[in-house]
Predict the structure of SMI1/KNR4 family protein.
Amino acid sequence: MTPIPYEPANWKERIVQMVLVKQRLEEVDTEGLWEYRLPRVAASEETLQQVEAAIGMPLDPEYRDFLNHAGGWPAFYQSVDLFGPDELLGSPEFAAAREALLSMEDAALAECGEAPRNLLPIAATTEDLDLFLIAGPEANTPGQVFWYAGGLIDTFPTFTEYFLAMVDYNREEIRRLEGKAAGAPSQ
């Protein structure tokens, strides 16, 4: 499958949007359920080249462009960390995510139609089963992001769509916590 040409995103605007959503979420999280962190400083071109050499494949252009603006994001969605160069160059979190990918059953991976060698962990949590994988350039669906948590939860056609969906998932968490604070029954 031929990848969809990438039109550079306005990552500064999208990152600010997510920061504002996360700030609001922190305000309504009166029980301190989640950690709230800002994205890391942008990765340099030299660092991104080191990452590509370390992982043995080019980074997806959208993910790479994001890393040019933010070098990863701890606690991006609940306890899920969005990996940056610090992780991709060999952190324990990345090693655990790679191990989780390699230990996935064939039936689970069959849902996405990709071989493990064509998938790169880009986000994960050590507190739960959530693992986010992006299809590499040799994959059947380059750039597609897959969300696993005991099985395939969701797919996103591009890294940008994944990012925007996580903004929306954080907004849903705000609505859930606002409803809980107002005494609404939890769902």
Observations:
- The beta strands are 73-77, 80-82, 119-124, 131-135, 145-148, 152-156.
